[in-house]
TrEMBL record:
Native source species: Rhipidura dahli
Protein name: alanine transaminase
Similarity field: Belongs to the class-I pyridoxal-phosphate-dependent aminotransferase family. Alanine aminotransferase subfamily.
All residue ranges annotated as the Aminotransferase class I/classII large domain in the record: 124-523
GO-annotated cellular components: cytoplasm
Amino acid sequence: CGRGPGGCQGGRTDMALRCAASLAAGRQPRGPRREGTVRWSSAAKASAVKINEKASREKILTLESMNPQVKAVEYAVRGPIVLKAGEIEKELRKGIKKPFTEVIKANIGDAHAMGQRPITFLRQVVALCTYPNLLDSPSFPEDAKKRARRILQGCGGNSLGSYTASQGINCIREDVASYIERRDGGVPADPDNIYLTTGASDGISAILKILISGGGKSRTGVMIPIPQYPLYSAAISELDAIQVNYYLDEENCWALNVNELRRALNEAKAYCNPKVLCIINPGNPTGQVQNRKCIEDVIHFAWEEKLFLLADEVYQDNVYSEGCQFHSFKKILYEMGPEYYNNVELASFHSTSKGYMGECGYRGGYMEVINLHPEIKGQLVKLLSVRLCPPVSGQAAMDIVVNPPVPGEESYAQFIKEKESVLNNLAKKAKLTEDMFNKIPGVHCNPLQGAMYAFPRIFIPSKAIEEAEAHKMAPDMFYCMKLLEETGICVVPGSGFGQREGTYHFRMTILPPVEKLKILLEKVKDFHIKFLEKYA
């Protein structure tokens, strides 16, 4: 090993390791030079082989030994089709020719990635909180500085870089409670029932962790809508709970029918203990907005059957169709009277990621939990304290969502202009998407009443289904993969959200700019017609 005439003398272990590495790499190790040849002893060879065998021992963590609940988790929004889209993007960067010049990722509701501009006031306040020296700058309006100072006063050391209370900064929770009261027409909200979270997803997962218990037939069942947002099925799998599906009525604009809830509940009682009912309003991926009567029926059903209600309301600002209006479950619950309001346990969720803000990366959110047992409140705070606190910049962003400029403040006019521009644009794109999809043979799209997605039903010919099965793929996954490979458009197959057997869909965001959205829809139309011709 180049250590002198003794070769490995005085450094056998070191030499053997390096010899092993050389062997593994297919190289001859260095040794004492004798007439231009390299030689090493049989003992050194044996030692190297032995160490090399040890170096390649069996891994501790394998697919067989890993947590089976994690292995069962699936999240279609970032699943195989998105990985394929990433591969295609790399090929395009290398100059490999495709029938298109870019991949359009219409698979996820990431507004800013699709070109939506941030709300100026929100970014100003977060910038001031992040770099307080800017508080002396004349470039920032006083109403933004006022909010930044208040947030910083709630932070340890007046710094956004400090930990906060696990439940979140107190003044921000107070602002959330005030926002809820304004939104719900004076229905009281207690800051002590507000928990700031890392996006809405963090709150949903935390509540489910506390709710799920039991074993065998007493294992907790969680009722979720089908189609659903895959966070729910993923969390249920991870927690080893029982998923109980109830189907939305596609023929009636994805309405929620209490008779269907009752069917799902009664069937589930044979194999689990259903005690959680999840509602997504406005719907994701389906875009329906529930009317007041529907919400009343759901609340009565939860009260009657003693179910804990989870109301996912992150799209509460995204309502487009005439005659549709967002009603919070909290408000309707209160208006149904004390028998309901004092007894039904409800957790509702909001986020900075959707609405007109689109601030997905800040991971800001909150949940309000009412009628929680006092001892369970302590357990929830304990659970949340394990992750210390939600991102403090996300808490600051959430504060601006619930405490925006008001009439009379200098930033109000610009704020309202930007907010209305985003929401009006989304309403226009919702109608455009619905109309264009319904002009394509073999495609049907319900009205996009809210949220930011279309979930059209697509006809897939039997020959295409057979080919999909030959490739061991779901038919709509096969369809979406072909769409990606031929047009560069990335959408998510309906099988990732759940759908009635024998029906096929995909979810597509309506977030791209109008002109790009028109091109995208035309490409989908051309692809679908060719797909039908090929497999008819």
